[in-house]
């Protein structure tokens, strides 16, 4: 447990200090939301109709941004080999890395999302559901992403390949996440989609660390 | 003979070399007969006119598109569990064939959809799932090409195939939640009354048989190429030393 806590602390410190890029995902999210009205025009009705989808796609892309460094830096300087020799199971290592990734990308988005939602004229009734869907959905993005990052470890220009591999895996999360918000925005029942979203997140957290750890073992064998 | 004997590349080459010509002829003949039969000797549909006849390409390609992925899944599992190289290479060989079949199914669907639904493309669950499947194929092929060490590439693509299968299935049902579709139900199913009419049914079954034979022939051919590429690579490594 101390090992896990130490690793989590290390990941967070690395992300926050020394240009780790913790704020970068958030800035990217902000720019993306700023670009949307330029693309589709400033009309409030159009913006409020596409706001749930745009916010969720923004969250997806912002999450993707820092994924390729998830294992890569530790792989390049040999830290990963040492971490694998520690008593911490590799599955736990993957889970902690994914949690740290979520804390530095998913959580800031969650806090910023209502503000950006307001600028896109998202109805007030949908705001709590936006936050809820991001809170319950974005952990899945980090865990699925960890799987993708493990698969593309050590590949030159792996970032591009990573997006090709990971974005299709994000489809169910995006569907249920955006459906939650748009159901709330149009007066429907958001709970059904939110339940599915939570199920995907829980299953991802339960299963994917094992798949990602197996992949890392194959990568480093 | 046990199927595992084919794990020996030499046995595989010998057997596949022997059956490949016959298989290719059978595939060509069944597809040829089925298409001529389907195009010229079946009546026009009373609602859809002659556009219905694209069915004889659309349904078989869609069938192969899905089952090629299933075959890759089984081959990947065999590689991960029993480490037979031929299995990994067969999975690699099947991917581009599956991808092309997916595109063929999407395009024949679009050509049929333009006069019938009045649109080339509709964000219908089936159509969207196929587009997602196509992207899974692309990612799988790209990962094979990106990893240099062949065994590691086989490992990683196998894991991707397993994880991808789960998510592809999940996406298939998630898109149903997202949009109810235009696409008609299955053309063939176990329940007799859901099937297309008999006059279309027999040429369709023949066409599907032909496409399955074609798929098997193409996969065998491409696996043989992959095995030969491996041998060339091994020879070149030996030369370099």
Automatic annotation (TrEMBL), chain A:
The chain crosses the membrane at residues 21-40, 46-67, 88-117, 129-153, 160-185, 191-216. It holds the Pfam family CcmB. It is a multi-pass membrane protein. InterPro entries: Cyt_c_biogenesis_CcmB, Cyt_c_CcmB_bac. GO terms for molecular function: heme transmembrane transporter activity. It comes from the Bacteria. Its main location: membrane. GO terms for biological process: cytochrome c biosynthetic process; cytochrome complex assembly. Required for the export of heme to the periplasm for the biogenesis of c-type cytochromes. This is Heme exporter protein B. It comes from Oceanomicrobium pacificus. The lineage of its organism: Bacteria, Pseudomonadati, Pseudomonadota, Alphaproteobacteria, Rhodobacterales. The gene is ccmB.
Automatic annotation (TrEMBL), chain B:
Keywords: Cell inner membrane, Cell membrane, Cytochrome c-type biogenesis, Membrane, Transmembrane, Transmembrane helix, Transport. GO terms for biological process: cytochrome complex assembly. One of its GO terms (cellular component) is plasma membrane. It is found in: Cell inner membrane; Membrane. Residues 4-183 form the Cytochrome c assembly protein domain. Belongs to the CcmC/CycZ/HelC family. NCBIfam families: ccmC. It comes from Oceanomicrobium pacificus. Required for the export of heme to the periplasm for the biogenesis of c-type cytochromes. This is Heme exporter protein C. The keyword Repeat does not apply. Pfam families: Cytochrom_C_asm. The chain crosses the membrane at residues 20-42, 54-81, 93-115, 127-147, 159-179, 199-221. InterPro entries: Cyt_c_assembly, Cyt_c_biogenesis_CcmC, Cyt_c_biogenesis_CcsA/CcmC.
